[in-house]
Amino acid sequence: MTAMVEVGFPDGRRNSYPQGTTLLEISREAGEEHRFPIIAAMLDNQVVDLRTPVDRDCRIEFLDLSSEPGIKAYQRSLAFVMIAAAGELFPGGEVTVEHSLSKGLYCELHLGREVTGKDIRQLQTRMEEIIQADLPLVKRMMSAAEAAAMFEQAGREEKAGLLRQLGDKTVSIYYCGQVYDYMHGVMAPSTGCLNKFELKHFPPGFILRFPEKEIPDRLPAFVEQPKLARIFLEAEEWGKILGCSYVSNLNDSIARGEIYDLIRVSEALHEKKIAQIADYVADNRRQVRLILIAGPSSSGKTTFAQRLGIQLRVNGLR
Question: Which DSSP helix (H) or strand (E) runs through 87?
């Protein structure tokens, strides 16, 4: 006789299922109760992907695009599809996800040449084809050492270096056909639900755009942020100069005892920037009457104000 497990739901219902039934199978019963696609689930208060088998009595809550974990899984899965599509279209090239920008993810294609709008359109078309095929996204657990060897063999040293630093931990590697990647967090069960996105050419890279949890049925209005984009690009260049473009590079600096040099250079750069602001204020002292400093709690506003005050005094201002 097949062993059964009892599953509780947020509305108080309790149903029994054969042990080993996946959350994806159970979610099909709950699909009509959700306005937006179910992407992941909470299993006893832990976020897991929908291919997770249920092997014990538990409580589950399905997560759609209107939830924070759900929309994060959507974004992560889209990025994976983008990486897979780029690998097919541009052999020998590489796509990197750099940072958040304009309610999306700023990414770069590294092809050894200038990236054109045609390249971005081809990438979007291939992504749409992968999504339409509704390919499964399958998780495989392996040791960090085994995963590092895989990425090293594929020439992806930045990923291999990070995995080597995890020691004897076990990691999740996701597969889409023959394409694989190390993704930090749960993913959608398949590509078919990732049908709302856009690639916007934003030289020298592009922006991967996707819905927000507040309006998961459409893309948000695009808001260009040129100043923030410029600062990010500057930080990227400084990372290259310092040999610290990836987290693994930073960890290596710590292991070699070189982190204090990195901190000192970073502090010197900050001081130079603050001095430039003070010089600008001094040069425009007749027009500048008030300096506003904005930022969230504990972001360094007070420290910045004190350092700026010192540089203003150097310019003869108080």
Answer: helix 68-89
